[in-house]
Description:
InterPro entries: Clarin (IPR026748)
Number of domains: 1
CATH class: Mainly Alpha
Family: Belongs to the clarin family.
Transmembrane segments: 99-125, 137-155, 189-209
GO biological process, one term: sensory perception of sound
Number of strands: 5
Shape: elongated
Membrane topology: Multi-pass membrane protein
CATH architecture: Up-down Bundle
Amino acid sequence: MTKLQKKVIFCLAGTLSFACAIGIAGALGTQLWVKGTILCKTGALLVNATGEELKKFIGEIQYGLFYGQRNKQCGLGGRPATFSFFPDLLHAIPASMHVSIITFSSALIVFALVGTGFFMFNAFGTPYETLHGPMGLYLWSFISCSCGSLVLILFSSEVKMHNLTEKIANYREGGFTYKTDTEHFEKSFWILLVCTLVHGLNIGLIRLAGFEFPFTKSKELDTSSGAIDLMY
């Protein structure tokens, strides 16, 4: 592969990495991570609501990593309200997991920007150390991909396994019990997934540029020494 082709590939990978950093930074501050509906279980049981009547007890909720909004329905009209995770919900949610998600998301932005710098340096500069060359490109791309995967796993676990939506809906609700009716991940979550896949794609682009994966060495057979061994 010619030097020009390598520059084009590195520029493409660097541009993708920078776009990921911008996308994740934008997604981090929005509330478009999870959206769903919540059922006022207590109210529905009191009037034995079924069919069309049950819709009067189904409200909406959406939230991100820092704040969100909900509209509770208990048969007497909606009760819209906004909420924030810090400091309001720290005692109601798995706080350590939630803080870890935010920390790794912020670190992913930094890693993506560092990876962008390394790609551009290899495209237009002259790498002079191992970490400035292909090894550094593989390293930061792998770290970014791993960090993004970790955020996806942690956030999915917090929402699905720890019933985050129900905990938010039932926060400071003494007389009513709410149950998750439907929930699905929103745009910001899928942006993070795409960015994680892009960092994995960058690893493939580095290999396409002609650089071997780290810690792989071609084994050359020495036929002459093999023949001497056979003689003895």
